Amino acid sequence: MSQNDRTEFVNIETWNLFRKRFRSETTEASYRSDISEFCRIVGKPFEDAGREDVRKYYEYMTAAVTSGKISMITRTKKFRELHSYASFLNEHDGNRDEHDYFYPYLKNMAKESRLAGSVPVEDMDALLRAAENNLAAYAILTLMYRAGLTSTEIVSLGGEEDFIRYDDGIYADLKERELPCYIPGDAWEILKTYMNQREIYDTLFYNRSGRPLNTMYISRMMKKYCAAAGIRSYSAQDVRNSCAFNLFSYGASARETAEQMGRTQHQIRRYQGAGYRGNLRRNASDLVKIHIEKP
Fold it and tell me: What is the pTM of this model?
């Protein structure tokens, strides 16, 4: 094998230096496999790949995520390995800017991985059961899960005046969104029940002193009821993300889902993964359609 055998896609001398950092043969094999895969897809050795090649690879892998062939975690793992090797080449060659076009994508993937968690149907059911004796907490969970509201949007709600009735249903008028947010009928019934028994303060949800809630309060609420439900600790964002997964799983388009979630179509496509969709299919006989009952 020559030092620059193009069937191997890497400079063998450089690779042998890089592989010394691995303690595990499995890790080395993973890196070698993903580097070779990248080079096969772009059709050139790693050292010759440029910005457009990395963009092509990103689009290829994103299509694989969308179709359910790989997970977002797998895509991130591949980019992390490619970034690591590109960084090594930069240091080895003394030119830190030449090879690493992976890092900008990796930064966005790190954000996506934090945003794309979700709550399995059976865990969400357990979480709602745990909170059913606290109508405010139950309503907050419902707004996140069924309407896709964020913690910030929920704590900023004023009162019934923030909800508008149109011919096709109830919408929330949220200050940070261009369009009103649809509130599904089951969520509205729960919210009405809560509003009928709440004290009148400046905000829809409030603490024992009547003061507005903050996002930290909702974070603590999530930990409390996840523990009570005997499930792992999910975040408020996980519950909200589940709204997008549900919409996709039941056939909503990227545009429709983006409008409901208050995001762009580009941002929203990350929720089209197959993992959660499969979970919903397994529970389809029980769900029929997603609907939350009053506590």
Answer: 0.56
